[in-house]
Amino acid sequence: METTAVPDRTATLRRLMALLPPGRVLDGAAQLAAYGSDGLTAFEARPLAVVVPETQDEAIAAVRFCHAEKLPFVARGSGTSLSGGSTPCAQGIVITLNRLNRILRLDPAERVAVVEPGVINLAVTAAAQPYGLHYAPDPSSQSVCTIGGNVAFNAGGAHCLKYGMTSNHVLGVKAVLATGEVVTWGGPSRENIGPDWTGLFVGNEGLFGIALEVTLQLLPRAEVFHTVLAGYRTLEEAGDAVAAVVASGLLPGAIEIMDALALEAASAAVHAEYPPGCAAVLIVELEGPREVVAADRLRLDAILAASQPVEVRPARDAAERLAIWKGRKSAFSAVGRLSPDFIVQDGVVPRRRLGEALRKISAWSKEMNVRCANVFHAGDGNLHPLILYDGREAGALERAEALAGRILRLCVEMGGSITGEHGVGLEKRDYLPDMFSPEEVACLKRLRAAFDPFEIANPGKMFPGPGAPALTQHGLHPLEKAGVIARE
């Protein structure tokens, strides 16, 4: 790989500004501060500039400029990444895609939508709803996160147990690669011949280039929903109830768990009501044709009764169903009421070992004196421990990172993954070798180099190496020494 030189700031900015209309390259201190970090605020950097394209041609021109200058760039939507995936490079630029926000085509007959990367996730369902359709992936941040970010990190959501991840719903992509080449892969057809380039691009974490148009699959909205909230005395009991539901052969649309700390936060933030005295609640949602849901509801009632819950509360109408989901989807932001800072992990464990994993996380939390709220997609074993700390206290971040590291290694030891939907990003790159062999990591690097030989697209993310491990427990982070990031 050819080394990227540190650019002359003034000259580079002058050439960059010549590409776009006035006011579309931001370099003021206050302007740049808004782009210094994403949802993982423990790391921050000040980019050289922020480019604000309003057309695809402008985005392409910006990438081609970066390739010609060997200038690092990071694509960014709403900045909701929780792995540091859109943390900028101190000597590079941010290409913000929020103004590429058009739904270019919505075809209810073919059940597809073609959208630009800055379209908000929930806006796709809102546009499809009049036709009885919806876009299935529903991450907790769906009211603000963008499709481009969802594609980059293969976002999931509460209903991924039944419907899968973003990769299961992206049919085609038009993208500008880090080399400046514009490619079009896939399309509206659900059956394609040859290599699945679209599938390869989804989840690339911004290391290949930038999506310009995304063709999404739309699905018919379910005829009826049946949503149940069940309270349990222990978190492990709730985990065991999940195993029982899945083992029964039922396929709910969603199975979610929230522990006592998450319940406290949600209650304070959105006034959600939960059974008193519970250490955890389980949310199970059935959906589909009326007759099927009616039959599955009887089976679910029997399974939950056998799991000895403190209380079971079925949603009696759409308003109560929305209230249940409002509490769940507000949990991440609501935890801010309990702690000024937190780290969100998203490791995955086999469902049969959920109870065991939760028990160990609880014991480690007490042992290390680090509070941890658990909110997660229980149906597919995707944990979301929210590790609370106060960055103003000496050593607090290091203790939180140490707990996060133990959880990630536990996931791998149990036969799971270090990430389910948030990506490796900056945060988990030190743990990639725990999951993959040196030969596998080398293969992934060769694949990245095929798309980005200069490694200018989102540099310093995903791969371990000099100047880039995250979750360091002692001393300065290597990227801090290099001036690429800075602690808050």
Offer a quick outline of the entry.
The protein has 488 residues and is an alpha+beta fold.
Structural class: alpha+beta
Number of helical regions = 17
User: Which regions are unreliable across 5 or more consecutive residues at pLDDT < 50?
Assistant: 1-6, 467-488
Mean pLDDT: 90
CATH architecture of the domain at 103-220: 2-Layer Sandwich
- Find the count of extended strands (DSSP E, 2+ residues): 20
Describe this structure in words.
The chain is of the alpha+beta class and 488 residues long. Among the domains are: 103-220, Uridine Diphospho-n-acetylenolpyruvylglucosamine Reductase, domain 3, CATH 3.30.465; 224-318, Alpha-Beta Plaits (2-Layer Sandwich). Helices cover 34% and strands 19% of the residues. It contains 17 helices and 20 strands. The strands form 5 sheets. It has a 7-stranded antiparallel beta sheet with strand order 16-13-15-14-18-19-17, with helices on both faces. A 5-stranded antiparallel beta sheet has the order 6-7-11-9-10. A 4-stranded mixed beta sheet has the order 1-3-5-4, with helices on one face. Helix 8 packs antiparallel against helix 13 and helix 13 (354-368) packs antiparallel against helix 14 (396-413). Mean pLDDT is 90; it is low at 1-6 and 467-488.
